[in-house]
Amino acid sequence: MAGAQFEYDESGGTFLYFLTSVWILFLLPVTYYLWPKGQVEEEKRLQKLEKVHSHSLWYQLKLNKTRSKAKSTAKKVILAIGWIIFLILAYKSSQVERDHVEYDPYEILQIDRGASQADVRRQYRLLSLKHHPDKGGDEDTFRKIAKAYQALTDEETRKNWEEYGNPDGPQATTFGIALPSWIVDSKNSMWVLAAYGVAFMVIMPVAVGTWWYRSIKYSADQVLLDTTQLYYYFFNKTPNMNVKRAVMILAASFEFEKGHNHEVMERPSDNVELPQLMRELSQLNEKSKERPLCYPYSIKARCLVHAHFSRIDLPPKTLELDRQLILRKCPTLVQEMVQVVAQLVALAHAGRVSNLPRLETIENCMKLSQMTVQGLWDNKSPLLQLPHIREDNLRHFVSKRRNIRSIRQLATMDEKDRRALLRNMTDEEYEDVMEVIKNFPIVEMDVQSLVLDDEDTYTITAGAIVTVNCKLKRQSMESVVSQGVEEPPAAEVDEEPEEEEQPEKVVNKPKPWQKNRKGKQKAGKAKKKPNKTQHQQNKKQQQNGALPLDKLKEGENNRIQEVKAGKDEDSSNSDWEDEPDREDEDGSGSDNDGQRQSEDDDDNWDALQARINRKEKVLETKSKISHTVHAPYFPEEKQEWWWLYVADRKKHSLITAPCMVTSLQEEEEVELKFAAPDKPGTYQYTVCIRSDSYLDFDVMKSIKLDVKEAKEAVDAEAAWNLSEDEDENNDEEEDISDYETDDEEED
């Protein structure tokens, strides 16, 4: 029985095949990731943003990075070297001779398979004379020729060749290992074992451990868990936190400490440049003894953030690089601060935290995000967000003739007045200002409070879950920019006759029966149904001959008199409900009731579909691309994001956790939910939408909730028994009426 034989690659041919396969598997993904793709599209996108963002820091940095050919050239060189190595390996592999060739004696003797024994002997003599070693031939070739002649002339040898493919009979199965033989050589065994030990016992555990250690240090938003713990401590300690205190907490984040972030640089020049910078900054509070606010990394980060808000130029190769590193991380850290404060509010309402953070604390954190993106203190004029406007120019905006304090006021000015106000600017600078103004957002918000999963969605009861449906619409300020169009004179407006306004009031005035229709339906629901049911039963009995027509009319008149006598307080609603019943006499009232019922069903179905669509939109992955923010002092491209929440400004408390809207391009619909107060009464809340990037672009809208007394819970078992009793009574009445009808027919 043939055995198995393992052979290592002595010539190196099999190992070349293996090495070529591994190299191409590594080279293909590296080529995909390193190939400079999308560079042309990025340049086109930057060209579109040039008018508005050409003076922004992030735009200049990205433009230089896109135009920089050093990294692109290095990537191309690396890829070219990799593909050259692959071609060399492929060429070497193709030149390797095949070790295993199928044995064929006819091919060795160079004769056809149908050759006779005489032809085999004749061909053998010719090849022997040519390849015999005594005649100067090759010994191995002559041995193959002799073996082939024997295989074709000897019966036993020919049988072995036909059955096993070899004249010598069955051979051992050979397995080739695509490794060179020197790897298993005893002389190199120590080096091979050392390499295996370093790879699998040192490098791999260290790599896995480093990845795991780094992953458990960060939250889902890539914020250090130590930083989150720091925020919890300080916001719980200081429930009412002002902006400057929030700046100190932000600068103390562990992302700015070298032990937690290897990107942070500590230079010897900091000992000279930082003290000089600290002399220019006021209210830095660098002498605070509170830890970690007094640590060197925290003081340095605080200096750089204050310098950013004051728009102070820093050394470009030292402190400026550190400031850009800090500013890139600030928006994410501020979002974490907002979430921490919102969670503390929820814990305080649940009784797990004693100190309830005030509404001003979370709003100051949101202001901190706006300040970081715009590089501006919150007490400065929002007009400084525009290019070419400095603080010394602001005195022209506020005077006896004009009082321009916001960008929207500047946009709505007449073109001539606006150009006269900015007369110190050149035409190019004025065009830059106007392009930036047109890019600013205007957000309109439509708010509606509902109680979903209830019969009456517009009636809010104590403890009910209130859903605030916010419809947001975003448009550019270009729509309100005045282009010098003259307004009609006041005389022309006053000449309009008053009689034209009168019909509008008459048309818009609600009709009497529309005022309390809902309340009427609630109040008279229990009284109307029995009368209507009795009327239908009487009509059915009259058709079957059970009741005479005069009794039917008498019952109808009695019902109408009861309604008129004061069963319902609103006479207009009585007319509304009596009219269909009068029409029932001729058979048309039931059709109207069915039509109204179908319309109500259609409205409920549409509302249900709208809710399902909104839930599906919430489940979808939200995009984080809206509009590029004009941020001239921010080192990274920023998208417009908005915080949306409900607050009680009278009690300085947060009602709903802030919802981050990241995809407000044109229109967006967001739902906010909270529990209504436990006590009935009238409550006034404020729905706020705040930008995380712009100052003085927040929108607030008040909503008033008229909370009613909560409905009494109905015992389900009692209601079930009551409904069963009613059904039994109705069945008995029908049986009796049918029986009486049969008796009357017999009579």
Secondary structure: elements and pairs:
Layout: E1 4-9, H1 13-34, H2 39-48, H3 50-53, H4 57-67, H5 70-94, H6 105-109, H7 117-131, H8 139-153, H9 155-164, E2 173-180, H10 189-217, H11 225-237, H12 243-251, H13 270-280, H14 296-309, H15 319-349, H16 359-374, H17 407-411, H18 415-421, H19 427-439, E3 441-450, E4 460-461, E5 465-476, H20 490-494, H21 501-508, H22 512-515, H23 517-523, H24 525-544, H25 549-567, H26 571-583, H27 589-619, E6 642-648, E7 653-654, E8 659-661, E9 667-675, E10 681-691, E11 699-708, H28 716-746
Parallel strand pairs: 1-2, 4-11
Antiparallel strand pairs: 3-5, 5-9, 6-7, 6-8, 6-10, 10-11
Helix pairs in contact: 1-5, 7-8, 8-9, 11-15, 12-14, 14-15, 15-16, 24-25, 26-27
Biased composition (Basic and acidic residues): 550-570
Protein name: Translocation protein SEC63 homolog
Keywords: Chaperone, Endoplasmic reticulum, Membrane, Protein transport, Transmembrane, Transmembrane helix, Transport
